Amino acid sequence: MNLSTNSTCTDVASRGSLELGSEACNQGQVIFTRFSTWQSCSVSYHFATLLVLDISTSQQQLTGAALAGQKFDTLTCWKGGILERCHVESHCSVVDDWIEAYKTDRDMALLDLINFFIQCSGCKGVVSGEMFRNMQNSEIIRRMTEEFDEDSGDYPLTMAGPLWKKFKGSFCEFIAVLVRQCQYSIIYDEYLMDTVISLLTGLSDSQVRAFRHTSTLAAMKLMTALVNVALNLSINMDNTQRQYETERNKNVAKRANDRLELLLQKRKELQENQDEIENMMNAIFKGVFVHRYRDAIAEIRAITIEEIGMWMKLYSDAFLNDSYLKYVGWTMHDKQGEVRLKCLTALQGLYYNRELNTRLELFTSRFKDRIVSMTLDKEYDVAVQAIKLLTLVLHTDEVLSPEDCESVYHLVYSAHRPVAIAAGEFLFKKLFSTREPEEEGAPKRRGRQSPNANLIKTTVFFFLESELHEHAAYLVDSLWESGADLLKDWECMTSLLLDDPVPGEEALTDRQETALIEIMLCTVRQAAECHPPVGRGTGKRVMTAKEKKTQLDDRTRMTELFAVTLPPLLAKYSIDTEKVTNLLQLPQFFDLDIYTTGRLEKHLEALLRQIREIVEKHTDTEVLEACSKTYHALCNEEFTIFNRVDIARSQLLDELVDKFNRLLEDFLQEGEEPDDDDAYQVLSTLKRITAFHNAHDLSQWDLFSSNFKLLNTGIENGDMPEQIVVHALQCTHYVVLWYLAKVSEGSHRKEELVSLRKQMRMFCLMCQRYLTNVNTTVKEQAFTILCDVLLVFSHQMVSGGREQLEPLVYSPDDSLQTELLSFILHHVFIDQDDDNGSTDGQQDDEAAKIEALHKRRNLLAAYCKLIIYNVVEMNTGADIFKQYMRYYNDYGDIIKETMSKTRQIDKIQCAKTLILSLQQVAFMEPIRLKEPCLDSTHLFTLPRLELARRFSLTFGLDQVKTRDAIAMLHKDGIEFAFKEPSPQGEGNPPLHLAFLDILSEFSSKLMRQDKRTVHMYLERFMTFQMALQRDDCWLPLISYRNSLQAGGDDDTMSVVSGYSSRGSSVRSKKIKAATPTATVAASMQTPVMMPSPHLTSTMMRGPGDMREEAKRGRDDSYMGVYTNHLFMYSYSILMVVCTNYGVCVCVCVCVCSRRGTGLMEEDEEPIVEDVMMSSEGRMEDLNEGMDFDTMDIDLVRPLTFYYIWKSHTERAVWLVALSCWRVMSG
Question: What transmembrane ranges does the database entry give (predicted)?
Answer without folding.
Answer: 1126-1152
